[in-house]
Amino acid sequence: MRVGLVCPYSLTIPGGVQGQVMGLARSLRRMGVEARVLAPCDGPPPDESVTPLGNSLPTAANGSIAPLAPDPPAQLRTIRVVRDEHFDVLHLHEPIAPGPTNTAAVLKSAPLLGTFHRAGHSTAYQHLRPLVQWVANRLDYRCAVSEDARRLAEDQLGGCYELVFNGVELNAPSAEPVTSSHPTIFFVGRHEPRKGLAILIDALRYLPPEVRLWVGGDGPETQHLKEQTGNDPRVEWLGRISDAEKQSRLQGADVFCAPSLFGESFGVVLLEAMAARTPIVASDLDAYAIVARPGRDALLSEPGDAAALAAALKRVLFDADMAGALMESGLDRAQQFSMDKLACRYAEIYADLAARRRVRSPEPETAQSKGGA
User: Fold this and answer.
1) Domain range enclosing 130
2) pTM
3) Do 86 and 219 lie in a common domain?
């Protein structure tokens, strides 16, 4: 079976959807599914399974800047590829996003599966409802990665959505840990208000002076936050890092921190930390609580409360028993969200769509929606 996985976001810019698409493609290929990824790429594609569709254009979306490719050349490449490759099924991630997924939905050269990742608020859904509903109605089956994502899509687009949580690659290549002689916190993500990096930096003043913070990524707040921290030796600014370095830092840090304030659909990065056996402190958001059971897989604190965040970080950094318990429970939790399990469910949907039959509902004991229970 030939499946085209279409991603609207540039694969050379780190992001949750991009990581899910690439990880899913790898798992599908191990199962014998011929999976090819179609997406924008600002530079060489990450591997030979990717068909690049052109460069991206920074676009404001959901309180962030998304690397989308809505320009005509990218759409012409998309049309040519989906017509020439003769896919049995096209799997569109964020099918309503402007660019390749939207174009593939309109063209509909094969049965279409749409996976909705976005949660919170969508200006496009609100102001372009007749158009996006028409595009959504082109889909033959719909999935959503979280309750929040399903709720947004149902409210704005109508239709039915299978809840299929994101996955984590448990068999990812091991990395050499980057270690520190100090108690170390690791943050990685876009430096923008909704990710809460400013709150984490503020929390440092409540922590002992020997604590260190590794900051991965960049964004519109980077320069301001650098100036705010001055020459503070406790903060190391890593800039944009590769997946390999992220894995090395996860394995070497004493705690991973996700202090987001809003706009999260699913805590994939929490699963990555769990799989790396790294204890977690994060904001108490619905999207994070789905993944990390409070007090078992992670310590969750009130979003935006620097003192509460610092108290949770201190417990993990200086209580070995607490850290160890979170690590063990987190690893078990990550296994429940295996990317291979996710790929198996998607492969079942592909088979039904390729055979032009009604998609069979998953058995209760194997459903992804039950896998995180």
Assistant:
1) 2-167+338-371
2) 0.81
3) no
